[in-house]
Amino acid sequence: MSVSQNDLALLVKRAQAGDRSAFDAIYDRFTDALYRFLYSRCGDAALAEELLGDLWVRVVEHLPQLRLPEGNAEAAFAAWLYRIARNLTVDAFRRRRGDVPLLETISSRERAPDDIVIADDEQRELRAAFAQLTSEQREVLLLRFFEDRSNAEVAALTGRSEGAVKVMQHRALGSLARLLGIERKRGVS
User: Fold this and answer.
1) C-alpha distances out from residue 65 to 10, 15, 78, 141, 145, Å
2) Which end of the chain is more exposed for a tag (fewer CB within 10 A), N or C?
3) CA distance 78 to 159
4) Which residues span the domain enclosing 136?
5) What would the pLDDT profile of 103-154 be if each residue is shown by its tens digit?
6) Which CATH number covers residue 169?
7) pTM of the shown model
């Protein structure tokens, strides 16, 4: 379901007033992307589902107090949801005393055994390099490339300026390249 800026602001107001169908429309609009975000952060489907449930409980609890700015309801509401998701993920890993891992494998169509071994080695190297980035750099790269969001969207979701997101993305990609032993061309990001 596609929801425009004005429609979303109206849906939020209706949901705040107790309209179940408005809340359902909001849930339908955001739940898949939030699940993907949570799953990309934790790499565990069961934990991502649990965190998604916790997220919607918090939304129900705090939605009545939420005030959206005029004219930018979509970005402000999405940023609020992703902030909750990010905080839940951080809390979950603090309880586990771990860090956010990258997914172990990504399923694909059949490949030759030597391609599988090479790809597994490359994924292992990428995970190890990715783990050496700061959590902020990992978050920007996950949102930008895994979630396929624009720099402006990443900026809104993380509470940074678009320029700061571009700089962080550039530095993170540079760090990955150095860690992986890849020479980057100047001026290409």
Assistant:
1) 15, 12, 16, 31, 33
2) N
3) 11
4) 107-189
5) 445 454 555 555 555 656 677 787 888 888 888 888 898 888 888 888 998 9
6) 1.10.10.10
7) 0.56
